[in-house]
Amino acid sequence: MVQIPNPPSPDSPAPRSVPTSADVARLAGVSRATVSYVLNNTGAVRISEPTRRRVHEAARELGYVPHAAARSLRAGHSRMVLMPTPSFPAGPLYTRFLGELQWALGRLDYTVVQYGTAAPHEEDAARAWAELRPVAVLAPASDLGPRGVDVLKRSGARAVLTLGPEPVDGAHALLTDQEGVGRGATRHLYDRGRRSIGVVVPAESGLDVFSAPRLAGARHAVEGTDATVTVLPLAYEEQDAARLAARWGSLGLDAVFAYNDEYAMLLMRALQDEGLDIPGDAAVIGADDLMLGRLLRPRLSTVHLELPAGRDLAALVDRAVHDPGAPPERHKVLGATVVHRESS
Amino acid sequence: MVQIPNPPSPDSPAPRSVPTSADVARLAGVSRATVSYVLNNTGAVRISEPTRRRVHEAARELGYVPHAAARSLRAGHSRMVLMPTPSFPAGPLYTRFLGELQWALGRLDYTVVQYGTAAPHEEDAARAWAELRPVAVLAPASDLGPRGVDVLKRSGARAVLTLGPEPVDGAHALLTDQEGVGRGATRHLYDRGRRSIGVVVPAESGLDVFSAPRLAGARHAVEGTDATVTVLPLAYEEQDAARLAARWGSLGLDAVFAYNDEYAMLLMRALQDEGLDIPGDAAVIGADDLMLGRLLRPRLSTVHLELPAGRDLAALVDRAVHDPGAPPERHKVLGATVVHRESS
DNA sequence: TTGAAAGCGGTACCAA
DNA sequence: TTGGTACCGCTTTCAA
Q: What are the coiled-coil residue ranges (chains A, B) (predicted)?
């Protein structure tokens, strides 16, 4: 069956069908094989210079672009690294990290794809990702159970890496020690003499992945001491912060770990508006070490987070891809350091 | 050539090759066609209940996941909407917008994919995207010239939408009126009696896409008046802000449009540290209407940006896909409103 | 140096 | 109700 080249439409700009390598071959007067050889610069086969030129010329003229799906179907594998689009509002920290990682993976000739449609159920998500047959998957541990890892591996993913506080069976783990953040912050407050410590837990959904372990770390830090930890739910709104500040006196707290710098700014402002002295009446510490903390007065104490360099992580992915049989590795990827400023 | 099913490795867990629909068919004792019918719930074909059960059972047992590339190769089209990963550090505004859009497109059964490897040259980028044969592409106008649009369309993209201040030939345009932001902010300062207006231009690369039109808008706002606009390059560092603040007196300015709220916070802090009164000595206005502006003292004036609802934009994409022949539409997608607070 | 042809994994037409 | 089969676009072996 011959494909109809151009539906006879005298006046409308003929909606050319997408050119294939066969079209290029036809126009150049060679076979499809030759086209493939030329365009992929196959080393093992020598093509004469005039032929090469003709093929390139034809490809350019037709605006030929190879079909990635067909290629990887034939090849039996792709170079796609899949990451789900984060479900939480990514801060500057994570954004920069992601950018670096993508760049580094690009250098290793991987194509990074962020898959952006959240599935309701965890295993469905894994199946949806698996349909794309990525060579590697890097996902939050919270989005991927052991079943999900299995689905991906059975569909040919040579490396599955999870990012989160706990490892997932069968996958390489990048352990983000969020507990350490809460522990460090709280221990710092304790060391500064505080004993009644509030811990902000954002009301916004999606953040519990971070806030839960941070809270757990805080609790852990005061275990066996005379200090107490009080949970302070807080929505990221001025009103809610004002409400919390208004009943501050009745809470009997002398310090607060405010989840991160942004929530810290919100709460600190509300406390100051209530006439409280920071750190006199209440010590405040945030986390993430954002610029804004340095700009506040008093300057905001915080927990600085050291994310792994994109290059290193890209190299890890590459190694994992090359050796799919290797036992899952575990890497700590969150260096947490308390930065003491003026607010605590 | 028969594929070797299981490399003889007596002790290691046999690395099964990826199951295909043929494997499912074999196990269920039916043909590949039947498998396809059952798993896709093809309406036109009735399959007996026992057979359906056997097929589903076999698929489950093998952990079968269909191969998206093979499917879309056969179908001749995909439901993939491709967006390049933004090259600038996406703020909370853009992040939320993106999330909404992805969700809305997901509801329309599109798969959103963020392509995350920047190509050096613009047309190369378009070609790289075109290899994936997305049904629609949504990209910053700065990443996509008319040639790029053409490449995409010739490779079967049914809709190409650009996001930026200027339309791109052949593509639907979502016009982000960044000029309007600068114009609004500057006109506001002018209306408040200011005549020597500084405009911050971030030193960080990648932001010029926004800063250039914002500056142009500022210039436009004072055209034909007795006011002047002075460009103030500023890196997002305390030091650089301090430097700028130190020579503030010599600049003879009485107001500044600080690019956005974050740069405004940085600069305002530096000016205050220099002992200047805001807005007495210098009026300050930011943009983006972030939470932090409301928390500053004095409260930061800003320009509120109204991004289009994800639902509406998703609907627009869907319409464009359904009618690829339609002439390019243009939509203004940035409602800019000055929010007057205390800093100006 | 070039061409013919098989086959990657699905889908859908046609026949049984 | 089910099976056989052609075909989507590309790569690669084998022959010429």
A: none
**CA separation, residue A269 to residues A203, A338, A339, B264 (Å):** 18, 22, 20, 18
Q: What is the CB-side half-sphere exposure of residue B137 using CA atoms within 13 A?
A: 33
Query: Does the CB of A69 sit below 7 A from strand C?
Result: no
For a pLDDT cut of 90, what percent of chain A falls above it? Answer: 86
Taking the C-alpha atoms of residue A100 and residue A94, their distance in angstroms, rounded to an integer, is 10
Say what the pTM is. Answer: 0.91
No. of helices (H) and no. of strands (E), chain B: 14, 12
Protein CA at A71 to nucleotide C1' at D3, angstroms:
29
Amino acid (1-letter code) at residue A30: V
Supply the pLDDT for residue B342: 98
* Residue owning tokens 């099913």: B5
For residue B73, say whether its CB is under 7 Å from any atom of strand D.
yes
Are B106 and A112 inside 8 Å of each other by CB? no
Report, in ranges, which bases of strand C sit under 7 Å from a protein C-beta.
1-5, 7-13
Chain A nearest C-alpha distance from B117 (Å): 6
For B200-224, write each residue's pLDDT tens digit: 999 998 899 999 999 999 999 999 9
pLDDT at B117: 82
Pairwise CB contact (< 8 Å): A116 & B116: no
CB-closest option in B15, B69, B113 to A115: B113
Other beta carbons within 10 Å of A53: 12
pLDDT, tens digit, 9 for 90 and up, residues A208-256? 999 999 999 999 999 999 999 999 999 999 999 999 999 999 999 999 9
Q: DSSP string covering A112-139, please?
A: EEEE----SSHHHHHHHHHHT--SEEEE
Q: Is the CB of A68 under 7 A from strand D?
A: no
Mean pLDDT taken over chain B: 93
**Three-state SS letters, B249-292:** HHHCCCEEECCCHHHHHHHHHHHHHCCCCCCCCCEEECCCCCHH
- State the Cα–Cα distance between residues A118 and A205, nearest whole angstrom: 15
Q: Is B236 an 8 Å CB contact of chain A? A: yes
Give the distance, in angstroms, between the CA of residue B127 and the centroid of all CA atoms in the same chain.
19
* Close Cβ partners of A22 (under 8 Å, ≥ 6 residues apart): A32
Which residues are B112's β-sheet partners?
B81
Asked whether strand C has any atom less than 7 Å from the CB of B67, the reply is: yes
Nearest chain B Cα to A124, which residue? B65
Query: Which residues, including other chains, have CB under 8 Å from residue A11's CB and lie 6 or more apart?
Result: none
What was the pLDDT predicted at B26?
A: 95
pLDDT bin (cut points 50, 70, 90) of residue B298 is very high
CA B311 to chain centre: 15
User: In angstroms, rounded to a whole number, what is the distance separating the alpha carbons of residues B295 and B289?
Assistant: 11
H/E stretch holding A337: strand A335-339
